[in-house]
């Protein structure tokens, strides 16, 4: 049977009506008995009223206001929360709040309706408004719970999937607010901002992937990520202003990723974000799939198709900040509810956005529940956490006097650190076969180390230092690279202090930084040769890999989120050759154990020669568990080929070139080692055996030892017995 994310709700049993308990000194209102076939609408009191304790999925017992038998009030007292749920919520330890908060279609008293619940502890009144009641603020008031949880809830009849709604909130200061549901599963198409009643029930057919996902996500398996923005990867040539839907994207993206041999795809945030130029990083609807591209079920279909093709899915997740949109989380109940009230901790000066209050238990539960939601309901295989550095430091992007030290006088945000540890602990305890990846650019220790050893608990961390040093080195004219070789080799001084992912991300091809191709020096031939050499180095350097869309074929211009990638460039041999090179080096990475088995272990790498400054040639070994799989990598950082270039190798025998970035099919010059090369018993580079090879210009050559042929045993010939 196909795995389902959510079972259809069973009909709930009918229980007695409730009484409404007024707060002290609140003037009791006259009750009106409804006429036959009618329902009454009770005017909300000036102050919130508390209801008595209820059992899960039922209305509370006791009565003060009664309806005639068989009649249903506009808002029926109803709850999905148990006492244990409330205790966990208050403690910040309820990590599946999406099963309780928001809108949930339920049958009650023989009628289909929707249960609504929202956290607004400082509100005077909360009601549901929408098309169903003409956006009337007084017709459907929710009940305030008696347990100081700050939750408002109620069941409204004759509302189902597809209904548009918001919450009307009267703040403690009398301000009238209309807010989208923080737990809404679907939103209106921007620029509209209302929530839509929806569900995430889906019959998945990716059981085979889910059963073996741990094999694809393990740290000793290949992990090559294609980072992409859904809205600008590709568009229809007939309608370039229109986005591809999730389903249309599945038709094009899945075979492309298979062709290019990527193991995973990472989507820039697909959570609802009304402001498209934010690329998804200004999220308003944390539990909703971006409606520009289709429905929640359409996104599930895309993920399912990727899984069936053997490709993992990573989502960018943004717990670091949110926009100040008045229809969303900002000052949700009229107070700083989700954000920190102190602007030194609650306002981000770079992005003009607001920072979550990580010290508030309910906010921590909201965020961790959101992370688990995408892993649970959408079968996502990993979360890349955005802007972790901005969370870790109180003085991040702030001048002296603009931040407040922590309790120990330091600059670390202790509440955020505690939150990140809780987040990773929760993720890996519920989903041990996924990965969390930190975009963290500082030297904060232990980011990808387990929480029980004092780390933050992430599975991997972006290697930002490597990325900056490498791009700076490759931007140098080859004649000057001999003076910067220490910058190139420095990464190996700290490569194994974390589980590093090597990122060439979207951040490197925007804001005037130029495309990857335009960062390379020289004429067109040298630019493409340099870029092929750079990618060869990336895929043979320890760590997992990430490449932003367009980089694989040499997008000439910077990334423009307003339009499709320049796919027409593939009509040129230079761009097509680069794409083929990335496809082949990806395949080599996936199929050669030496490149991934010890990606985060210092025993998986060894320098052979990093001291030839004059020629700018570097040689190293990548090692797997079996030494027979060792690879020797030769990088020539200048456009001068080197013939009969001697290198030391770890073992005697024949060595075959398995990849050369100067191959003519990659638009290279064709300086290759076409035949296996046999070792000489001449010591070189500290090795007993050495080879004479050709180092291609601005090229990478990768060698693997040819396995010795094992002679087949000769069966003895039996003599026939004489007759």
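-> sequence recovered:
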């Amino acid at each position: 049977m196909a795995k389902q994310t959510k079972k259809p709700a069973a009909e709930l049993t009918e229980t007695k009506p409730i009484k409404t308990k007024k707060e002290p000194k609140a003037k009791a209102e006259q009750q009106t008995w409804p006429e036959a076939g009618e329902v009454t609408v009770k005017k909300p009191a000036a102050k919130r009223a508390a209801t008595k304790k209820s059992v899960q999925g039922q209305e509370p017992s006791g009565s003060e206001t009664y309806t005639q038998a068989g009649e249903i009030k506009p808002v029926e007292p109803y709850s999905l929360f148990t006492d244990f749920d409330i205790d966990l919520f208050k403690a910040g330890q309820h990590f599946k709040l999406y099963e309780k908060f928001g809108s949930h279609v339920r049958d009650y008293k023989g009628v289909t309706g929707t249960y609504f619940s929202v956290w607004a502890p400082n509100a005077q009144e909360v009601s549901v408004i929408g098309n169903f009641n003409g956006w009337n603020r007084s017709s459907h008031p929710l009940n305030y719970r008696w347990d100081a949880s700050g939750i408002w809830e109620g069941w409204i009849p004759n509302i189902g999937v597809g209904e548009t709604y918001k919450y009307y909130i009267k703040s403690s200061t009398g301000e009238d607010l209309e807010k989208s549901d923080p737990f809404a599963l679907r939103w209106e198409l921007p620029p509209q901002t209302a929530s839509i009643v929806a569900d995430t029930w889906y019959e998945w057919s990716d059981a085979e992937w889910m059963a073996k996902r741990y094999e694809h996500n393990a740290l000793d398996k290949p992990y090559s990520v294609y980072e992409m923005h859904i809205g600008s990867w590709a568009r229809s040539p007939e309608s370039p202003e229109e986005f591809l839907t999730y389903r249309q994207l599945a038709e094009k993206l899945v075979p492309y990723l298979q062709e290019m041999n990527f193991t995973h795809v990472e989507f820039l945030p697909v959570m609802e974000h009304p402001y498209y130029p934010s690329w998804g990083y200004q999220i308003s609807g944390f539990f909703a799939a971006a409606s520009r591209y289709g429905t929640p079920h359409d996104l599930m279909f895309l993920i399912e198709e990727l899984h069936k093709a053997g490709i993992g899915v990573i989502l960018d997740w943004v717990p670091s900040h949110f926009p100040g949109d008045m229809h969303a989380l900002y000052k949700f109940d009229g107070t700083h509810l989700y954000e920190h009230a102190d602007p030194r901790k609650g306002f981000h000066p770079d992005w003009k956005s607001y920072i979550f209050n990580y010290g508030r238990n309910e906010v921590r539960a909201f965020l961790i529940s959101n992370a688990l939601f995408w892993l649970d309901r959408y079968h996502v295989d990993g979360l890349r956490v955005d802007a972790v550095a901005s969370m870790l430091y109180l003085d991040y992007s702030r001048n002296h006097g603009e931040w407040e030290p922590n309790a120990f006088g330091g600059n670390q945000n202790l509440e955020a650190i505690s939150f990140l540890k809780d987040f990773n602990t929760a993720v890996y305890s519920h989903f041990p076969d996924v990965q969390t990846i930190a975009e963290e650019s500082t030297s904060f220790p232990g980011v990808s180390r387990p929480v029980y050893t004092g780390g933050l608990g992430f599975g991997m961390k972006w290697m930002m230092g490597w990325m900056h040093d490498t791009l700076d080195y490759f931007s140098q004219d080859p004649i000057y690279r001999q003076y910067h070789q220490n910058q190139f080799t420095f990464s190996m001084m700290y490569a194994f202090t974390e589980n590093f992912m090597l990122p060439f991300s979207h951040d490197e091809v925007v804001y005037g930084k130029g495309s990857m191709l335009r960062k390379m020096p020289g004429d067109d031939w040298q630019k493409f040769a340099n870029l092929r050499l750079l990618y060869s180095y990336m895929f043979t350097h320890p760590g997992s890999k990430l490449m932003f869309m367009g980089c694989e074929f040499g997008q000439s211009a910077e990334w423009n989120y307003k339009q499709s990638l320049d796919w027409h460039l593939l009509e040129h041999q230079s761009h097509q050759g680069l794409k083929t090179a990335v496809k082949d080096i990806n395949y080599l990475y996936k199929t050669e154990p030496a490149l991934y088995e010890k990606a985060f272990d210092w025993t998986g790498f060894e320098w052979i020669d990093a001291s030839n400054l004059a020629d700018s040639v570097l040689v190293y070994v990548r090692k797997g568990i079996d030494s027979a799989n060792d690879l020797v990598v030769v990088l020539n950082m200048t456009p001068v080929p080197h013939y009969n270039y001697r290198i030391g190798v770890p073992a005697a025998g024949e060595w075959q070139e398995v990849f050369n970035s100067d191959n003519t099919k990659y638009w290279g010059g064709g300086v290759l080692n076409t035949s296996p090369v046999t070792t000489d018993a001449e010591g070189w580079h500290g090795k007993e055996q050495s080879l004479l090879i050709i180092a291609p210009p601005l090229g990478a050559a990768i060698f693997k030892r040819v396995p010795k042929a094992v002679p087949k045993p000769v069966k003895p010939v039996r003599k026939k017995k004489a007759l």
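The mean pLDDT is 90.
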